[in-house]
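Why should sequence recovery work at all? Because a backbone constrains its sequence more than one might expect. Tight turns favour small or flexible residues, buried strands favour hydrophobic ones, and helices have their own preferences. The token representation captures these environments compactly. In the example below, the structure is given first.
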């Protein structure tokens, strides 16, 4: 199945109905409502999230410890970076990442990292290229704030800004955000300076919700692993 752009925790039925009404009030596309409910209520998807995230955390403990040590050696500051993001139905949660910059946010202000950003450390550049800075988000998956596969969450300031200029932008909040997603394996990952880049992401995020299946999740995860470990990974 070709998804490329061309030219142009299981909840109860009562809670799901409430979530649907909430989604409509917040401007979500009602055409995607039924599919998003199926995704959010999927016991299989949630079990896969818990199993894979738990296994990955156990296997990658040595890698995580080495990264943490390297971060502390290279620059002063905390090992982990916590930032508020929007989750399902625009509920907020703190996402966890390995710190890749010499500074984070200050005085409540947010400045999006860009290519060749002077604040990114040498180790941080490597972590970002390999997506190793995202490993702590497995914790968010276990907590049910994220899924292994879903729309990638942005900083809240960015989401609020994009929602004002991109139609159907909030549809990506119908489901839990993911460690990886259809947009990312289609090539739309990384910096988000270009509005067109974000529009393509939104297109793929909405397509993911519309076409979702457990098999599609598996395909996206396999393509993600290949992209991060293949010969052109760096």
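From this structural description, the recovered sequence reads:
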């Amino acid at each position: 199945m070709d998804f490329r752009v061309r030219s142009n925790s299981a909840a109860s039925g009562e809670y799901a109905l409430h979530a649907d009404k909430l989604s409509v009030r917040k401007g979500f596309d009602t055409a995607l409502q039924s599919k998003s409910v199926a995704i959010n209520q999927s016991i299989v998807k949630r079990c896969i999230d818990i199993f894979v995230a738990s296994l990955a955390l156990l296997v990658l403990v040595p890698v995580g410890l080495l990264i943490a040590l390297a971060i502390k050696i290279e620059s002063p500051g905390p090992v982990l970076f916590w930032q508020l993001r929007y989750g399902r139905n625009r509920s907020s949660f703190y996402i966890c990442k390995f710190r890749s910059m010499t500074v984070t946010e200050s005085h409540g202000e947010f400045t999006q990292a860009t290519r060749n950003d002077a604040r990114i450390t040498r180790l941080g550049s490597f972590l970002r290229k390999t997506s190793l800075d995202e490993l702590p988000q497995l914790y968010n998956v276990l907590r049910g704030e994220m899924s292994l596969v879903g729309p990638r969450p942005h900083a809240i300031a960015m989401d609020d800004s994009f929602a004002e200029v991109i139609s159907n932008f909030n549809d990506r909040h119908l489901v839990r955000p993911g460690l990886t997603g259809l947009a990312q394996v289609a090539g739309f990952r990384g910096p988000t300076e270009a509005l067109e880049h974000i529009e393509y992401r939104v297109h793929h995020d909405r397509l993911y919700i519309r076409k979702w299946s457990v098999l599609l999740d598996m395909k996206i995860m396999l393509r993600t692993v290949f992209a991060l470990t293949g010969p052109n990974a760096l």
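A few observations help interpret the result. Residues 1-25, 105-109 have pLDDT under 50 and may be disordered.
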